[in-house]
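Q: Hi! First time doing this. I have a protein sequence and I read that you can turn it into a structure. Is that right? Here it is:
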Amino acid sequence: MTKIWLWVKKHKPAIFLVLLILLALKVFIPQIDTLIESIQALKEADPMWVIAGVIVFFAGVPVLAWQYLELAIKPIKFWLTFRVEMAGLFVSKLLPSSLGTLSLNLYYFVYAKHSVVQSTTVMAMNAFTSGIAYGLIIIGGIIVGDFSLNSINIFAADLPWGLISLITLTLIFGAIIIYKVPRFNKKIKKTFSELKYNLKAYSHRPKAVLMGILLNGIGSLTSLFALYASAHAIGIDLTMTQALVAYTIGNIAAGLVPTPGGLGATEAGIYSGLILVGVDVTSAITITLLYRLISYWLPILPGYYYFWSLKKTVLSKFSIKTHS
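A: Yes, that's right. Below is the predicted 3D structure, encoded as structure tokens:
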């Protein structure tokens, strides 16, 4: 038993990588039909719009790396941070919502000489600035957009009412639990207390906070543009504000229905949003598939390449099981 344990310990990185590949296969293989449908959606798409969507989407990665450079408490290197964030395009597909990316970034900041508390503080500030940036985008969309709430087809027959009901019930049930259960009340209060501490830690760095908001906003817009480009690629004149509605609903669905990389939930949310803003059923399906090809499937290979290239150095001790 001792020899086996020593062998396992010696080959831990290789064993972890094999397990990671098996996990990836378990996640991706059942979704091959979706991938095939996504590729088929390209047949009728304008290649220029597709290329524009891909380029802008991937442009969000260096923006994200720059964002962490601004928010980091201790100095970090841009190129290494960029490579880690590229690796995150693969890791994020293995866990629900953003847990994969969060665990990877927490590990990276500890590797970059941040304490656990400092790493958590950077992640909390990133989430805080991201929330502000997204809120500003929504406000901007309402003010300058030519989209009217009156155009929302809320009673569209083709909406996935099961998902909508689940989201609604989850929100109501969650609110009741938070209100009734003292333990959750204490947790909420603790979260706000930690947020105050994090804000205090950045009180002498207003430029970093402003840059975090700006760069988070730009990063969100790169993903939003990919959805906008997917619509225009098949000849649907979707506005950025309408794309924002569908994109937001997709994010909400992915957060409330935790699946690896948001598979299924994100598609249903985006499809619902597109239907709500008046896109016909066939086009909504095609746009959703094309967008997920750009934002989900295409990043897997380059993401895995960077993950593999860092596995012997920066990520040699990274474990999803340990850090998630």
